[in-house]
Amino acid sequence: MADVLALVGAFVLTVELARRSLGLTWVGFVLVPVSVAVAKATGLYDRDESLLRKTTLDEVPRLFQLATMVALVSWLTGGLIVQGQLDRHEALFLWLVLAGLLMLLRAGARVLALRVAPVERCLFIGDEVSAETIRSKLGCRGGVKAKVVAHLDLDKVAPWSTDSFSVGRLAEIRDLAQTLDVHRAIIAPRSADAGEMLNLVRTLKAVGVRVSVLPRLLEVVGSSVEFDDLHGVTVMGVRRFDLTRSSARFKRAFDVLGASLGLLAVAPLMILLAVAVKLEDGGPVFFRQWRVGRHGKRFQMLKFRTMIQGADAMKDSLRDRNEAQEGLFKIAEDPRVTRVGRLLRRTALDELPQLLNIVRGEMSLVGPRPLVIEEDQRIEGWHRRRLELMPGMTGPWQILGPARVPLREMVAIDYIYVANWSLWTDIKILLRTVPHVLGRKGL
After folding, report:
1. Alpha helix segments (H runs only) across 282-422
2. DSSP 117-145
3. Residue 319 DSSP symbol
4. Mean pLDDT confidence for 300-306
5. Where are the alpha helices (DSSP H) in 42-87?
6. pTM, whole model, 2 decimals?
7. Residues ≥6 apart with Cβ < 8 Å to 247
8. Phi and psi at residue 252, in whole multiples of 5°?
């Protein structure tokens, strides 16, 4: 319904705002269901059935493809779809409006669906540690409306697995699912029982239960793999961990362009903030802190100063109020924060000087979190591969809320980010950072 409204709305706006007489032909009305059929064929209506977390942002590339197809067909077919030939400016307008409406209305439809849909009840099959991790992640909301209603130990489930799929065995599992009112099973497989897991997945799907699997391999290689069909045998090709030379240059160009435009846009605001910080207590405008950057090289990260002078000397006396975990230090109502500093932190404006770090080549717009020296010394083993990329002004850790993510989990998230890097990943993180900051999460 959202896609139909977007298609109709885009054509109506294009026709109404055109300075000359335009109108839709009967073929133009047929294009609407045809476009919906194309969206169906490309999988745009099937993702939510498989996913726990429903998000429109991951569909943006395919939505742009759909909008491009509709706009090009409308433009190139002459007067077949629109009475009176669309010129290139009107076709461009149709493309941009349709792409925007598809994203906006789909996002709105998902918000509405999350509110009216029942909670997805999940049966977790696996070890207790993994079960607790999934419980905590399901409680984070953000496009998720599910909860774990039962947890079964893997050893107790294994006897169910069978190749025969007998009526009695399927009836036993069906009765359990009905008793617990289970909609989805989440499985954390063990490395030694691949055959049992395969049979279990088949059995669960056979009785109509959705299945999600925690892929332990992807904790190491990330999700950026290419599936290779080797004459009937599926082989995963794992991308190289670090960036190619062209990718690194492309990311750097994106950073310089974004940071430069950002500095030009916020320069007047930064001047006003600098004056406000200076007038607060006469101290320095910037707070400079040594951080560990790419390949372990240290640099001074810039922020607008938000604390009183000599705040570091008070840190030991406030450790009992620390709300962060595993070596991080963060207090929600820190008494060392100045009045101007509270405003800067609440709006995340204290981070703006980091645009200068980006221009200087010390940071990136998106990347692993830049850790202080003491935190970096706690990182060992393969987690240190996170330093293959320059640290970022924002990153996946920022969206999750840095005060709530333990250090061990944060560096694992950074490692997966490096393994999966793409420019589209950076753009998605930047877009998701905006509502995060506006919602004042993790501050």
Report:
1. 339-347, 354-359, 373-376, 396-400, 407-419
2. SPPEEEEEES-HHHHHHHHHHHTT-SSB-
3. G
4. 93
5. 47-50, 60-76
6. 0.72
7. 421
8. -65, -40
